[in-house]
Amino acid sequence: MKAAKAGIGLLAAVLTSGCWGQINFDQLTVVSAIGLDPAKNGRVRVTLQLSNPTLPVTAGGGSQARRPFVNYDAVGVTIQEAVERIQHQAKKSLFFPQTKVVLISEPFARRGLDDTLDYFWRETNQNLNSWVLVSTLPARHVLDKAMELESVPAEEWMKYLKGDWKRPLQVDIQMYQFLPRLNQTGFQAVSPGIGPFNRSGKSDIMEIGDTAIFKNDRMVGWLSGEESQIVNWLTGSSRNGSFHTDLAKEESVSFNLSAVRARMTPVLRDGRLSVNVRIRGEAEVLTATLPLHFGDEHEMLRDTLNKQLQLAVEETIDKLFRQYGSDVVGLGEALHRSHPAEWTKRKPRWEEELRGANARVSVSFRIRKSGLLH
């Protein structure tokens, strides 16, 4: 209750000071989400999801159920121009400090963001704590059609991204973290992806899943959930995970991973850059398609897990460095800390350095659970 009163008092103070002095509460509408799509001739289509808490009264005097939000969209040369057009449509002042999500469509992200997203730096009323998502569908479609448990979809997505219970297979990033990395050579941007749960695109139930990878301000590709988990370990964003191992005769074992610690060390030898990656942790068997006697098979399970995890880490790093030429794990920052002079020399050709870097990966997980598993 005290927090609620403090929030109301703060909002009232804002609205009664400066340029907000002439705006009443009933003239404001809260922007829950911002969607960005490409438009013709290099322009941008902006969709704003606006709170709509009132229910209209029908001619017969009864109430007609309606969604508690409404979406407006407009096209402009800049985001600011499109927002001004939406404000004329909505006939209210737009309140951005409570924006939950900024949704960027994949085609727009691949076009490049630097010339557009500077709006969020310049517009003082923007919420830089909002969460960033890249959509496989047009952003305006997702904002209009998404079906979630929460009445406002952006609320559901925000709670999922900030919650401790979300799967470690997904990354998360807020706008204040995302924007600087669009121009940061040694630690580049990622974003969780969102798209229809049914891959055919016919479902309106959305799933937050794969990871969008950026090189500078431009999206260059996707990582799967398992690959995203490895990125989380290497950046220190998560210490948990899961992994599925394949055994002989089409048998398999799934593990829950915990206490994961990863260390990434840049190494310079004969003028060439390489990276030593060391990952340690604990594992617990979750499911198996065959009965396991840990006294006899403990060592085999441990070695299989470590060997297959090592291969997965090597393939993920290879995909990031050689296929995408993107440093989303912060190898450049690590080199800057350990060898600042070398970083200064190599920074101008960092993409070339990444593509030529070799990774030496060491993985060691200890299996905690013992006994008999059927």
TrEMBL record:
It is found in: Membrane. It is a lipid-anchor. Residues 1-21 form the signal peptide. Residues 211-371 form the Spore germination GerAC-like C-terminal domain. Keywords: Germination, Lipoprotein, Membrane, Palmitate, Signal. This is Ger(X)C family spore germination protein. Its main location: membrane. InterPro entries: GerAC_N, Spore_GerAC-like, Spore_GerAC-like_C, Spore_GerAC_C_sf. Belongs to the GerABKC lipoprotein family. Residues 24-194 form the Spore germination protein N-terminal domain. The keyword Electron transport does not apply. It comes from the Bacteria.
